[in-house]
Amino acid sequence: MSGLFLSFEGIDGAGKSTHIEALAQALRARGRTVVLTREPGGTPLAEKLRALALNDPMDPLTEALLMFAARRDHLQQVIEPALARGDVVLCDRFTDATFAYQGGGRGFDLDVLATLERWVQSVPATPLRQPDVTVWFDLPAAVAAQRLAGARVPDRFESQPQAFFERVAGGYAARAKADPGRFLRVAADQPRDQVWQDVEEGLRKRGVL
Ligand SMILES: Nc1ncnc2c1ncn2[C@@H]1O[C@H](COP(=O)(O)OP(=O)(O)O)[C@@H](O)[C@H]1O
Ligand SMILES: Cc1cn([C@H]2C[C@H](O)[C@@H](COP(=O)(O)OP(=O)(O)O)O2)c(=O)[nH]c1=O
């Protein structure tokens, strides 16, 4: 069986975590070996970089470089070996998050991000590794803010004002527009069951489920 790479995106509170585990179970029930992972993170080194990026003050270039440094290690240590074995990789966030948060949210130069993307995602198997499908939980920033109010201790990103998340959401929309074949947009402002049905149906249409 050939490997499959799925990423999950959306602003904080959009509902990714709620549905990734259910999807892992659905895939396992179909006989697939599933690697559940996340960015920034997924390896011991990348988890250290995550702790820095989420908690320590830094300028936008440092932030972008840490995200891509973590990604490079994650690709080499976890994602590429898993895809080579024929596993399904479910990754909670990938490069679209960098374009949305560092690009849209922080206003960092998108051309620089695109250059880093090409460098970091060039691997022996392919000149530009990208997810096969990106499930995008599209949720208005105001709804996400309501969901997260008081729910968890906010990190450097979650403590940003709503306007930041409006820019992040715009960053995702631009990435989706540029690569509509890869993006599966799910309207996340619906009851959990309906969101899950839309995820399932979208992935079935793409032959993933
Ligand atoms: N469809 C939904 N409707 C209402 N609340 C939801 C829905 N999906 C998730 N939630 C709740 O919203 C919060 C954020 O969801 P979560 O899955 O952690 O988002 P993310 O991983 O994208 O940040 C959680 O408290 C979760 O229980
Ligand atoms: C992958 C990535 C995440 N982030 C941010 C988005 C999130 O606020 C944060 C961590 O993501 P996430 O794992 O979704 O957080 P949580 O543990 O709260 O579910 O990192 C970036 O800013 N750039 C990136 O490239």
UniProtKB/TrEMBL annotation:
<dbReference type="InterPro" id="IPR018094">
    <property type="entry name" value="Thymidylate_kinase"/>
</dbReference>
<dbReference type="GO" id="GO:0006227">
    <property type="term" value="P:dUDP biosynthetic process"/>
</dbReference>
<dbReference type="GO" id="GO:0004798">
    <property type="term" value="F:dTMP kinase activity"/>
</dbReference>
<dbReference type="GO" id="GO:0005829">
    <property type="term" value="C:cytosol"/>
</dbReference>
<dbReference type="GO" id="GO:0006233">
    <property type="term" value="P:dTDP biosynthetic process"/>
</dbReference>
<feature type="binding site">
    <location>
        <begin position="10"/>
        <end position="17"/>
    </location>
    <ligand>
        <name>ATP</name>
    </ligand>
</feature>
<feature type="domain" description="Thymidylate kinase-like">
    <location>
        <begin position="8"/>
        <end position="198"/>
    </location>
</feature>
<keyword id="KW-0545">Nucleotide biosynthesis</keyword>
<comment type="similarity">
    <text>Belongs to the thymidylate kinase family.</text>
</comment>
<comment type="function">
    <text>Phosphorylation of dTMP to form dTDP in both de novo and salvage pathways of dTTP synthesis.</text>
</comment>
<dbReference type="GO" id="GO:0006235">
    <property type="term" value="P:dTTP biosynthetic process"/>
</dbReference>
<keyword id="KW-0067">ATP-binding</keyword>
<dbReference type="InterPro" id="IPR039430">
    <property type="entry name" value="Thymidylate_kin-like_dom"/>
</dbReference>
<protein>
    <recommendedName>
        <fullName>Thymidylate kinase</fullName>
        <ecNumber>2.7.4.9</ecNumber>
    </recommendedName>
</protein>
<dbReference type="InterPro" id="IPR027417">
    <property type="entry name" value="P-loop_NTPase"/>
</dbReference>
<keyword id="KW-0547">Nucleotide-binding</keyword>
<dbReference type="Pfam" id="PF02223">
    <property type="entry name" value="Thymidylate_kin"/>
</dbReference>
<keyword id="KW-0808">Transferase</keyword>
<dbReference type="GO" id="GO:0005524">
    <property type="term" value="F:ATP binding"/>
</dbReference>
<keyword id="KW-0418">Kinase</keyword>
